[in-house]
Amino acid sequence: MQIEQTLSIIKPNVIIKNSIGSIISRLEKAGLFIVASKMIKLNWEKAVSFYIEHKNKSFFEDLIHFISSSPIIVQVLEGYNAVQRNREIMGNTNPKLALSGTLRSDYSDSIVENSIHGSDSIISAKKEINFFFKTKEIFSRI
Ligand code: AMP
Prior knowledge:
- By secondary structure, this protein is α+β, with helices and mostly antiparallel strands.
- Helix content is 39%, strand content 20%.
- The protein has seven helices and four strands.
- The two termini are 13 Å apart.
- The structure holds adenosine monophosphate.
């Protein structure tokens, strides 16, 4: 097992429901360490830039509208196999398919408003972490 870092975004529907702490608590209890964290509000252009790989998808406008609709929490999570571990804790992108007890099963409102984002590979994690954080803002703890 190797120590990895992954990017997590707590999405607007969680912020609006005042459930930030519940999500963070579940990530920590599952063995992930928060090594960088901030609340930000994405404007339309920055949201498009983050999700550019989905620009031709039918849900793209809904996704950009949602993610830029209120503040979000962006975090770097660190831990053993953090990319895959975080994806297990989050569950399937579609909350209807997410296993019971996963974050997306418990906190989503729809497939777009699915409560949390996590990097899907080590390569994307590096890219996504660089998108939001400078190296000096990340405090590795393992
Ligand atoms: P991904 O890059 O796969 O994590 O997808 C980014 C986000 O797009 C997901 O977290 C969902 O909010 C949204 N999304 C992905 N697939 C769909 C879909 N089939 N329908 C609607 N929204 C989706």
